[in-house]
């Protein structure tokens, strides 16, 4: 018994994907350097000073190491076997927020104890991914029936609903990325198309007069109808689609005026360049752009960023950490960080496709999807490609919950991957 | 296929992010500037402006401290506007206007809110400044004039305007800059370099220490003192003599080209253009009849009149169309075409020497005719003549170190070809040039420079106002000899003729005991148009002289608008100036008194009326135009 466990551990060390671990370590290290710069007080203290943000982050990084060892030591079957349990714990933790949660800026998404906060939605992502992978791997749905579609979506729509009630738009939105995973596993494509077209129409409707958009829709539909060479060119479906799109366009104004909160409207206005006050709702994006934009090719140098030092960018050590990269390390530094992330995504997708069984493949897809969505939403928001939505940059942003949650998410996959040799 | 969607989305998203980053960081550099505005506070320290001394070491211009209240609009907080208005004695409307103006310039950069406070205002405000966030006091230096003359020589200083800032990035809003005179010419020397301190700020606008340990900071550099070539006493005396007369006096030391006096009349007291009253006083001065800001010695272009005969004579000798023995008979004038006649005072037959003394028109008209018609083609003669004159610095900018000037006009063959496209012009057609009328115009300083070349017998130094700069050298152009095209030996007979002017000629009553003066009188006809009718005014009076004859120490050019015959006002003025400079005291006090008392104001009435009418008409037209524009717009 002792001997076999020893052997198992050895196989983890030799089979685990060291490239991913290397990228992970590098991102965590670079993240810490930038957190250090962004949170350095006038009088530098020890980097282990727990009273400082950079000191706390070192503690979280330190905690991750034994966690990684534990995650890699646990039997790979464990994660699949207990996926339902993890999921239930996750849902309970979200429900518990309504009773025990701490409200910060109108959002109740934290547990607070012993001076540290815990954000359950970060961990729920992993639990959801595990359950989704387990469902698809075991039930092997074709997603042709409405029931299968409902179960597939329901697995992540349920926590999304709870998260929306906190309310936390950003985290909820991240889950939408799982549609990509469903699509990979056979989900009908028109869900993605509908979402994509809806987003485009939403912004077009805010920017232009409805009449122009109607003309655009009409032209697009006619072109599609004419070029569609398939036999089932049912004009009735075309008509319905057109009417729905037009209805959507007209409902955008209503949604915008009546449904969206003022701060959400502001964020959308900021993005589409409506007249905004740079001292109020436009402040974050403007300062973020100034910090990044003043970096030029190689940046102002480590600890030399005037915007970083002056504390102009709000929340710079958490969601806005990439602005420090932009200012102090310039375009070159940004390319390095982006390069590391993109390499990581492709590595995970590559490893996922190499799996011989469905569970680790689907889970891997989920990991890549979550990480990519975080990365894309975070960085796009800082440079004005996406409305301001508070999501952390994985491994990079300050924060114990997000670092540990992403570490767990990634290393479960690495464990599953290292186990593939045993999966005959 | 389904495997490909996710990688494609990753690639597209990455491209979008990289492109946007490239745009923000590399292409659009406005963020770099915004970042500096954001995080840096710049504090300036203004050094004292250099002093100005005269050639004898007398202090002419010093400094006095002045305090500006500056404002940074976006930093104004919890302002008690009424209290502030009360302390500064301004109205609420004034306050709003000033703040609005500052905001338009920049919400985050300092603008001058109220400039040049008196010491008392400053003291009152300084006690309370800490209550007014966004306002601070900037110390500067204003000029403190020790003398009440030479306004045209000094120029003045004023706050920079938008154009100044655009033209030269050194200046920022609120800075002072020298305008006209030596203040403009030696602006960079006098002003020094302002000191800059960069201070890192945080988002609450708190200062968190020097930016990058102060590696970009610089300490201010004091402006350098300069000594100008003006003789303060001579300048002051000349300005006194010129009261109630319009025109100018230029005195130059021929051996060096140093300008001893540069008098333009009417002039103004430089003290009027200091401080908060500056712009009001400027407006008033500018509207005075005669325009005190029109520096007649530098930018007044006049026909030189008879003194120009000196050049005609010299060129005649150089071109060998006459020699010292050549004589032309004259019977009170010279007929150069049918019915056209140039009058002369005396009749007889003269050679060069008495011709200069008597200022004989006939003699020089004949000489000029010979010069132009010497060659087969009058073009060649005209251009030879033109080139000789150019070598005296005429018809071009002299290159002195004052910011304003005029070229004057010396016509050449091209000029006349344009007037007479079919050709056919010759010496007689342009005969007025012979005696300094016709198409020739010069500035008084150019005329003085011609006399320097005569006094030096063939060369001059570019006239200049700078004598020395503290710890620095003056432009070496000013110590380079400029030679004329006339050989040295030709000057001797001309100088003898000029000396004769004082002994027996047109200025014989103006001799100074013990000093031999060489000079030349001149009168210039001038006209004015009144209601479309050409009306002749009293002649301009010109006098050109140097002394002593044996060792010239001063060249003087006097130009009096409508002063009449050269020997009545211009001549005596020149002679008094020479005496003042060479002897220091005036022996001929009765002559001095006559000149101090004499006024030509009555001569200017008509001219001023016409000018005023013209100005009023122009103003009316401008208003009408503006009104029309308003209606149309």
From TrEMBL, chain A:
<dbReference type="InterPro" id="IPR018365">
    <property type="entry name" value="Cell_cycle_FtsW-rel_CS"/>
</dbReference>
<feature type="transmembrane region" description="Helical">
    <location>
        <begin position="395"/>
        <end position="414"/>
    </location>
</feature>
<feature type="transmembrane region" description="Helical">
    <location>
        <begin position="12"/>
        <end position="33"/>
    </location>
</feature>
<feature type="transmembrane region" description="Helical">
    <location>
        <begin position="53"/>
        <end position="72"/>
    </location>
</feature>
<dbReference type="GO" id="GO:0032153">
    <property type="term" value="C:cell division site"/>
</dbReference>
<feature type="transmembrane region" description="Helical">
    <location>
        <begin position="235"/>
        <end position="256"/>
    </location>
</feature>
<keyword id="KW-0812">Transmembrane</keyword>
<feature type="transmembrane region" description="Helical">
    <location>
        <begin position="362"/>
        <end position="389"/>
    </location>
</feature>
<keyword id="KW-1133">Transmembrane helix</keyword>
<dbReference type="GO" id="GO:0051301">
    <property type="term" value="P:cell division"/>
</dbReference>
<feature type="transmembrane region" description="Helical">
    <location>
        <begin position="154"/>
        <end position="184"/>
    </location>
</feature>
<dbReference type="GO" id="GO:0005886">
    <property type="term" value="C:plasma membrane"/>
</dbReference>
<dbReference type="Pfam" id="PF01098">
    <property type="entry name" value="FTSW_RODA_SPOVE"/>
</dbReference>
<protein>
    <recommendedName>
        <fullName>Cell wall polymerase</fullName>
    </recommendedName>
</protein>
<dbReference type="GO" id="GO:0015648">
    <property type="term" value="F:lipid-linked peptidoglycan transporter activity"/>
</dbReference>
<keyword id="KW-0472">Membrane</keyword>
<dbReference type="GO" id="GO:0008360">
    <property type="term" value="P:regulation of cell shape"/>
</dbReference>
<feature type="transmembrane region" description="Helical">
    <location>
        <begin position="84"/>
        <end position="104"/>
    </location>
</feature>
<feature type="transmembrane region" description="Helical">
    <location>
        <begin position="190"/>
        <end position="223"/>
    </location>
</feature>
<keyword id="KW-0133">Cell shape</keyword>
<feature type="transmembrane region" description="Helical">
    <location>
        <begin position="329"/>
        <end position="350"/>
    </location>
</feature>
<dbReference type="InterPro" id="IPR001182">
    <property type="entry name" value="FtsW/RodA"/>
</dbReference>
Automatic annotation (TrEMBL), chain B:
<dbReference type="InterPro" id="IPR001460">
    <property type="entry name" value="PCN-bd_Tpept"/>
</dbReference>
<dbReference type="GO" id="GO:0071972">
    <property type="term" value="F:peptidoglycan L,D-transpeptidase activity"/>
</dbReference>
<dbReference type="InterPro" id="IPR036138">
    <property type="entry name" value="PBP_dimer_sf"/>
</dbReference>
<dbReference type="GO" id="GO:0005886">
    <property type="term" value="C:plasma membrane"/>
</dbReference>
<dbReference type="GO" id="GO:0071555">
    <property type="term" value="P:cell wall organization"/>
</dbReference>
<keyword id="KW-0645">Protease</keyword>
<dbReference type="GO" id="GO:0006508">
    <property type="term" value="P:proteolysis"/>
</dbReference>
<feature type="domain" description="Penicillin-binding protein transpeptidase">
    <location>
        <begin position="247"/>
        <end position="575"/>
    </location>
</feature>
<dbReference type="GO" id="GO:0009252">
    <property type="term" value="P:peptidoglycan biosynthetic process"/>
</dbReference>
<dbReference type="Pfam" id="PF00905">
    <property type="entry name" value="Transpeptidase"/>
</dbReference>
<dbReference type="GO" id="GO:0008658">
    <property type="term" value="F:penicillin binding"/>
</dbReference>
<feature type="domain" description="Penicillin-binding protein dimerisation">
    <location>
        <begin position="46"/>
        <end position="208"/>
    </location>
</feature>
<dbReference type="Pfam" id="PF03717">
    <property type="entry name" value="PBP_dimer"/>
</dbReference>
<dbReference type="GO" id="GO:0008360">
    <property type="term" value="P:regulation of cell shape"/>
</dbReference>
<keyword id="KW-0812">Transmembrane</keyword>
<keyword id="KW-0121">Carboxypeptidase</keyword>
<dbReference type="InterPro" id="IPR012338">
    <property type="entry name" value="Beta-lactam/transpept-like"/>
</dbReference>
<keyword id="KW-1133">Transmembrane helix</keyword>
<keyword id="KW-1003">Cell membrane</keyword>
<keyword id="KW-0997">Cell inner membrane</keyword>
<keyword id="KW-0378">Hydrolase</keyword>
<keyword id="KW-0133">Cell shape</keyword>
């Amino acid at each position: 018994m002792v001997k076999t466990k020893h052997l198992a551990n050895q196989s983890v060390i030799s089979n685990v994907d060291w490239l991913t671990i290397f990228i992970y370590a590098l991102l965590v290290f670079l993240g810490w350097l930038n957190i250090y710069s962004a949170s350095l007080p006038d009088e530098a203290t020890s980097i282990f000073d727990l009273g400082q943000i950079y000191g706390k982050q070192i503690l979280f990084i330190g905690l991750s190491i034994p966690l990684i060892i534990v995650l890699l030591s646990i039997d790979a079957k464990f994660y699949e076997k207990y996926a339902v349990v993890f999921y239930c714990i996750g849902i309970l933790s979200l429900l518990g927020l309504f009773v025990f949660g701490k409200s910060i800026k109108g959002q109740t998404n934290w547990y607070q104890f012993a001076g540290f906060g815990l954000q359950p939605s970060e961990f729920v992502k992993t639990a959801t991914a595990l359950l989704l992978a387990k469902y698809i791997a075991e039930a092997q749905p074709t997603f042709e029936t409405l029931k299968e579609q409902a179960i597939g979506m329901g697995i992540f729509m349920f926590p999304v609903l709870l998260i929306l009630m906190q309310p936390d738009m950003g985290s909820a939105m991240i889950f939408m990325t799982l549609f990509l995973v469903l699509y990979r596993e056979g989900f009908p494509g028109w869900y993605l198309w509908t979402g994509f077209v809806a987003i485009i129409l939403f912004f077009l409707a805010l920017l232009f007069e409805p009449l122009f958009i109607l003309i655009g829709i009409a032209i697009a539909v006619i072109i599609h109808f004419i070029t569609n060479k398939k036999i089932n060119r049912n004009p009735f479906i075309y008509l319905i689609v057109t009417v729905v799109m037009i209805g959507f366009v007209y409902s955008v104004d209503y949604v915008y005026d009546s449904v969206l909160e003022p701060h959400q409207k502001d964020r959308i206005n900021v993005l589409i360049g409506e007249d905004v006050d740079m001292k109020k709702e436009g402040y974050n994006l403007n300062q973020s752009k100034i910090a990044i934009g003043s970096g030029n090719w190689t940046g102002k140098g480590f600890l030399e960023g005037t915007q970083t030092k002056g504390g102009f960018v709000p929340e710079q050590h958490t969601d806005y950490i990439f602005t420090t990269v932009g200012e102090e390390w310039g375009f070159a530094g940004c390319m390095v960080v982006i390069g590391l992330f993109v390499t990581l995504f492709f590595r995970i997708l590559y490893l996922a496709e190499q799996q011989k069984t469905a569970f680790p493949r689907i889970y891997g897809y989920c990991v890549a999807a979550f990480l990519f969505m975080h990365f894309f939403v975070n960085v796009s928001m800082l440079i004005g490609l996406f409305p301001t939505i508070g999501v952390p940059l994985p491994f990079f942003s300050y924060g114990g919950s997000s670092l540990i949650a992403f570490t767990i998410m990634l290393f479960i996959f690495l464990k599953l991957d290292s186990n593939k040799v045993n999966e005959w | 296929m389904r495997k490909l969607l996710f990688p494609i989305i990753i690639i597209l998203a990455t491209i979008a992010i990289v492109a946007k980053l490239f745009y923000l960081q590399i292409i659009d550099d406005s963020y770099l500037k915004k970042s500096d505005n954001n995080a840096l506070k710049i504090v300036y320290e203004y050094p004292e402006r250099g002093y100005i001394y005269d050639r004898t070491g007398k202090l002419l211009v010093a400094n006095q401290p002045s305090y500006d209240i500056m404002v940074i609009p976006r930093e104004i907080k919890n302002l008690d506007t009424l209290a502030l208005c009360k302390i500064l004695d301004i109205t609420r409307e004034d306050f709003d206007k000033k703040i609005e103006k500052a905001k338009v310039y920049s919400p985050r950069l300092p603008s001058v809110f109220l400039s040049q406070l008196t010491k008392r205002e400053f003291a009152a405000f300084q006690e309370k400044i800490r209550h007014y966030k966004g306002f601070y006091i900037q110390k500067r230096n204003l000029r403190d004039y020790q003398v009440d003359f030479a306004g045209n020589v000094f120029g003045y200083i004023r706050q920079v305007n938008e154009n100044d800032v655009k033209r030269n990035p050194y200046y920022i809003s609120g800075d002072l800059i020298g305008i006209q005179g030596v203040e403009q010419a030696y602006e960079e020397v006098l002003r020094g370099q302002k000191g800059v301190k960069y201070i890192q700020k945080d988002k609450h606008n708190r200062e968190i220490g020097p930016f990058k340990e102060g590696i970009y900071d610089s300490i201010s550099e004091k402006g350098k003192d300069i000594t100008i070539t003006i003789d303060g006493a001579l300048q002051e005396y000349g300005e006194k003599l010129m009261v109630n007369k319009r025109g100018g006096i230029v005195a130059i030391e021929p051996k060096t080209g140093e300008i001893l006096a540069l008098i333009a009349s009417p002039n103004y007291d430089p003290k009027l253009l200091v401080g908060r009253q500056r712009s009001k006083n400027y407006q008033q001065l500018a509207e005075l009849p005669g325009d005190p800001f029109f520096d007649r010695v530098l930018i007044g272009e006049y026909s030189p009149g008879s003194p120009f005969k000196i050049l005609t004579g010299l060129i005649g000798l150089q071109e060998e169309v006459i020699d010292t023995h050549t004589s032309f008979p004259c019977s009170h004038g010279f007929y150069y075409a049918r019915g056209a006649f140039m009058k002369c005072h005396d009749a007889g037959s003269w050679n060069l020497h008495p011709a200069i003394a008597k200022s004989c028109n006939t003699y020089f008209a004949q000489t000029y005719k010979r010069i132009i018609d010497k060659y087969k083609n009058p073009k060649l003669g005209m251009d030879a003549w033109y080139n000789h004159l150019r070598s005296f610095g005429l018809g071009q900018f002299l290159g002195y170190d004052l910011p304003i000037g005029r070229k004057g006009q010396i016509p050449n063959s091209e000029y006349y070809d344009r007037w007479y496209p079919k050709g056919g012009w010759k010496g007689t057609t342009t005969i007025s040039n012979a005696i300094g009328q016709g198409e020739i115009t010069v500035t008084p300083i150019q005329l003085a420079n011609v006399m320097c070349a005569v006094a030096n017998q063939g060369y001059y130094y570019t006239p200049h106002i700078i004598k020395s700069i503290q710890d620095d050298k003056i432009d070496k152009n000013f110590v380079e000899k400029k030679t004329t095209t006339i050989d040295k030996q030709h000057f001797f007979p001309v100088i003898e003729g000029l000396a004769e002017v004082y002994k027996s000629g047109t200025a014989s009553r103006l001799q100074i005991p013990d000093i031999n003066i060489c000079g030349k009188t001149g009168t210039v006809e001038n006209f004015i148009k009144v209601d479309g009718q050409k009306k002749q005014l009293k002649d301009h009076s010109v006098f050109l002289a140097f002394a002593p004859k044996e060792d010239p120490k001063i060249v003087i050019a006097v130009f009096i608008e409508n002063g009449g015959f050269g020997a009545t006002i211009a001549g005596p003025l020149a002679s008094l100036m020479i005496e003042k400079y060479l002897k220091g005291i005036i022996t001929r006090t009765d002559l001095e008194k006559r000149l101090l008392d004499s006024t030509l104001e009555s001569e200017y009435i008509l001219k001023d009326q016409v000018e005023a009418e013209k100005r009023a008409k122009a103003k009316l037209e401008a208003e009408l135009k503006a009104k029309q524009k308003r209606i149309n717009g």
